[in-house]
Amino acid sequence: MATNTESCAECVKRGRECNSIFPECEFYRRAAPSQRGGIRQARQQQEQEYLIQYAQGLERKLAQLKSANQPSSSASRRTSGSEGTTSRGTLLGLEGKQWWLESPLPALTHGVLVQAFNNAAERHHLHFCKSIMQDVLSGSSSSREPHPALINSVYLLAVASASQIPKLAPYSSAQAESHFLAQAREGMTDSISRVNRLVDYLKASAIVSIYLIKKGRHLEGYYHYSSAAGTAIACGLHSNPFVSGNPGSQNVVLLPTSDPLEAIDRIYTFWTFYYQDKVYAIIFGFASAFNEEVDASVVDLMSLM
Asked: Which helix (H) or strand (E) holds 49?
């Protein structure tokens, strides 16, 4: 006979010691030999009820464990979002590719990154002349081609901001950021050493400075900004380019321009540096790159904006 782990109900009721022999304990065999069949059926029914209740208890515990381990709705949304990001990356042909190494970038990728940069530029108060930036970055300007330093700095800020926009998440990559930062720095060195498209150098420096500050590399960002701010003063960007005879229109470092739109672009570029100078001084306590003479000239420039 099999051994049960619990005393039978009758033995418990009578307070007797039960040897737990199933289906009939020693007490039943001695006390009621003529009723073995009925006793056996009663014990079997008790055991069935016990097993049913035990199984139901296990099912309730299992249900509790499943509910406790079930991912939350926010986690489900994150999972679905990552799956959506992967599918978008697949559709764009970016999955598993080092797309940032292509030179030049495909037109689709270039357009997406330029749009991402435009959105980021507004958030970070990069006050460039929008019409000139649009013409230069879209390639529709027949008069001039943007310096690689400017192009790579635009890509840099766009990639750094891509993670904040779900549809641009496939473009977010730390490797791409490192690549574009190195390319922008190399281009800035080339521009300043060759005195080549200095306004593009200044714009690239402002963008790279914003990127480094955004990444918490404050001193490094201030280094780029302060160096370029000094160059902006040397180029006479703080002076009114529409007044003949002032340093802004006859500077030997930066050739004068007869294009009013380009002159306005220079004013906006200087204003970007002046704005950054005040923000960095207030928030980070950095020394101002501009003296009182420059502060006085800003009043005239603001009247032209």
From this structure: helix 36-69
